[in-house]
Amino acid sequence: MRAPNAQPQPVGGLARRLAHILTTRGIEPTSTPQGGPEPVPALLAAESRIPARYRTATADHPAVAAWVRDIAAAGRPGPGGAPGIAQGRSLLIAGTTGTGKTHQAYGAVRSLIGAGVRLRWKAVTAADLYADLRPRPGHDGERELRDLARCPLLIIDDLGAAKYSEWTEEITMRLMNRRYNELLPTLVTTNLGMADLRAHIGDRVASRLTEMTDKVILDGPDRRRTHAAQQRLTAA
């Protein structure tokens, strides 16, 4: 049993990272949190599943930030009073290559967790989605499809970028139709305009996306090319 005046000692790499983050924010790691639980541990756990490039992503587009607020506000209270993902609108982020669609998507996840929302989520590119679900010996693609269809928040990145076939259209339809029927928030990014996306994924999926999503259009230069050019100037 810990002595009454003993101070808790952080143990392990995660605890050391947490202590460092708290210290940089001006919070004493051994102090008792005031005004509710500190969401940093959940954010740290989420960041281990976020690609390294997007672990500091922020949802700084006004429409994406508004969607995050709506989803957080609609959550049902769970253990300890923290809200969890409930039914809600989905979000379609469209724009040309390099305009920051994936950055905004992962920023939305980080914003929800940072707001204290209890969040079970999955993220997959459309190409990886079809590769993972393609029938093969020893793999239960149907079970994986059901898991994706029921996930409280699903990110599908680069919809329309994978090669089209009748099979991919069927898979997309089954997945999106389940989420459409259950009003489960789905965050979709695409390089295509709605007309081109409709031609690629089929009328039935496009119709559901049109009804279930709020739409955000990102424009501007390719951020990757701009960043690369800035790096070359700095190195010169």
Give a short synopsis of this structure:
By secondary structure, the chain is α/β, with parallel strands linked by helices. The protein is 48% helix and 13% strand. It contains ten helices and seven strands.
Structure overview:
The structure is a single chain. By secondary structure, the protein is α/β, with parallel strands linked by helices. 48% of the residues lie in helices and 13% in strands. The chain has 10 helices and 7 strands. The chain has helices spanning 12-24, 40-47, 62-74, 101-114, 126-133, 141-150, 166-182, 194-201, 203-212, 223-235, and strands at 76-77, 83-84, 90-95, 121-125, 153-157, 186-190, 213-218.
Specify the number of helices.
Answer: 10
Spatial strand arrangement across the major sheet:
4-5-6-3-7
The helix/strand class is alpha/beta
How many strands, which pairing sense, and closed or not: the largest β-sheet? 5 strands, parallel
Radius of gyration: 20 Å
Please indicate the percent range of residues in DSSP E strands (runs of 2 or more).
Answer: 5-15%
How many beta-strand runs? 7
What is the ordering of alpha helices and beta strands?
Answer: HHHEEEHEHHEHEHHEH
Distance between the termini: 61 Å
